[in-house]
From TrEMBL:
InterPro entries: LRR_dom_sf. This is Uncharacterized protein.
Amino acid sequence: MESAPSAQDIFAVLWHCQAVENLKLPKVGNQDRVDLVAAFMVDHFSKLRRIQFVSAGSESGDVLPFKVIESMRGQWLEELNYCGPGYALGLPLATTLFQRHSDTLRQLTFEGCRSVDSDSIRIILSECKALEEFCVHGSEGNCLRLADAVSADWVSTKVLRLSLTIGFTDLQTLYPDQKPYYKRDSPLKLFAEETQQFELLARFYEQVGKLKQLEFLDLRVQHFHAHGHPLNKPYATVSFPGFLNMPDKRTGRPGYLQLLAGLTKLKELRGSVSADLDETKRTMGWREVVFMDENFSDLRVAEFYPISAVLRRPFRWLVAQRYHPGSAPLSLSGGS
């Protein structure tokens, strides 16, 4: 196994890089070296604004970027790209870090990690005013809880790319003997828990709909059992209830697509947005595709169908609309 470099080896390399603004941090094996390297960088890397870090799988070493950011001068960091399982950030440190750079931080990416819990994501969305790109996808159960997503306003109006996993209870695990809401006879009567969840979802969709500069949106569902544990369901096989359908006054079925009317710059829509599920086959149809054609004229990709799937007639019509002169071609396949 390759041994970690000594602090002296790291310093020898870093000494020649003090003018850089963008740096991929080295992998450091233990806490003593982390503290030494972090202190060295804070003293000598006054121009550093953008940090990349790939986790080595060591919790003591994986704290390095956060140590560096914590010690940097305030309102200076612009980008952090963190890849791997990583250090569990936690609310106190997240609050300190992201409030400290809330006016300058433009890009935050956490891939395949457990570094950011729901509270940390909430702090980022409610504090970072300059945010343009925010991507968090971690391990199963690592997500932004729905209640946290709507507990405070999202302060950035500049977001261009947003990629999040949203966690909420699969209510069918609460009453498995009942039909899901979209299969019940009309007029629809919701259970108390469904009413409460739809109210939270509506507030979440409204938050998303306010991001009028948005070009890329990737929202994934993480379902939890009523007893609290995460359910192992691929995100493409589940949906956000009411997200991409209009309200139906005849049946009483809720819908919130109209809240997204301001996303006129949207180019890609990905995640748990399939139109080919038992639920969305019943809730997404002509009214929805006409709305999308009128409001999402820049849309290039929407993951509504698996590759090689047969599109329903309204969606074939939507694709055909983009064959007109001056229109952008539209793919409804997840593999695009």
